[in-house]
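Complex record, two chains
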Amino acid sequence: MNLSTTAIEVTGIARSYGDQPVLRDLDLTVPTGTVYALLGPNGAGKTTLVRILSTLLAPDAGTALVAGHDVAREPDGVRRSIGVTGQFSAIDELLTGRENLRLMADLAHLPRSEAAARVDELLAGFDLTDAADRRAATYSGGMKRRLDLAMTLVSRPRLIFLDEPTTGLDPRSRRDLWQIVRELLADGVTIFLTTQYLEEADQLADTVGVLVDGRLVAEGTPAELKAQAGHSTLDDVFLALTEQPTDAKESF
Amino acid sequence: MSTMTYAVHDSATLFRRNLRHLVRYPSLTITIIAMPVVFLLLFTYVFGGTLGAGLPGGATSADPRADYLHYLTPAILVMTVVAVAQSTAILVAKDATEGIIDRFKTLPIARSAPLNAHVLAAMAQTVFALVVVLAVALVLGYRSDTSVVGWAGAVGILLLMGFAVTWLCVALGLVSGSVEAASNAPMPLILLPFLSSAFVPTDSMPAGLAWVAQHQPFTPIIETLRACLDGTAPGSDAWWAIGWCVLISVVCCAWAVRLFGCPRAV
């Protein structure tokens, strides 16, 4: 694997909860500086894969290299390279926006002067300057999500996981978030995102992987997937693909 | 910076976060302090006259209620420490069920830092609560004429016990899986002092119960504290008290760190 060109290399990853398999023998590669969108219905295993790749969960089988580090053997190497914004907001609501960002800057061991500058820069960049000194509990859903993402970016990670970043957001907040993702991409950051929104994958992704029942049932550029399945929208591709495994199961 | 320096730095950073929580959520601390204060008032004014008369030498005492306040106060200080620790279980469970702990776990920080921060904040809260409760006891008429060494011993045993039960409650908070379960898990810690020498001397209990009371950790801890505050020698009770606290600290710290390392099944 070439470190400079491959951000994520997943080989044969499997994971079960009890006797319920969630991921089955998954292979997946994400080139550096691209957006990979993992698309799938609820319960497909998207969050489980993000938790494995971000060192929160150990796989039962298989290996995963993230930013050149093995998630099982060098978790701290992985942690130094990544930023994670989970499905549920991971902000401290009793702290203000500024204090949340400062907490992350201190945990990233930024020097004092640099930390204050970085916090101000992110508050401005995420349109939170006016609300900076209010407790995060008073923020709207969109503001919480922006603060959450800003906290992830404090340490300038080169690889970012976004687990359903726009679930529950209104259309304007969603568009704002997409704009932020595009800016990150322009800076050469690699982004691995999960979503149930086909439009989101269509808008942002270089590569889309469709995950159904813990298996990658299709992978390609949005255009390739549409052409391959003979559908004009990714919605139709998604519906067609997610129906297949049900038939497959019946033929076992 | 070395790994050790990072561990201290990260723990201090997160300790500041926990302290802010305590300052911004004062009703929690007020509720915690209310419990031992109510017990102090209840046991002094409602039960104190009768219980004081039952203490050794109490039958001929001029003021059995004052005698009982003197007997009771060390026990109430121990209850205060337990009450703070119990709330820590809730705070730890709350943190663990919210996204922020997962965020901390994906950072290249010392693994134990979030737990160290909870324990440090609990210790700060313990000191504050002890000062308030002791002040109330003094207002009610409690007096100690012990030496500086006696006070140092009293503070020492209270903090050592606080450290032990806080680590126990951190582990209980992690293992419980929800805030509701975490608020019930430390219940035995509230009940155990009743089965000790906290409120009545153990030799007034039936033989079997007295044996249990004499051999559980709270009795030597409370007797050591009483001896320190009375300016007498605690004898072997001190070694039992210290031994129990060190044992509980070591076991529960290891347990908590291990639980914290385990990913939650989501």
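Note: Residues 234-250 of chain A form the longest helix (17 residues).
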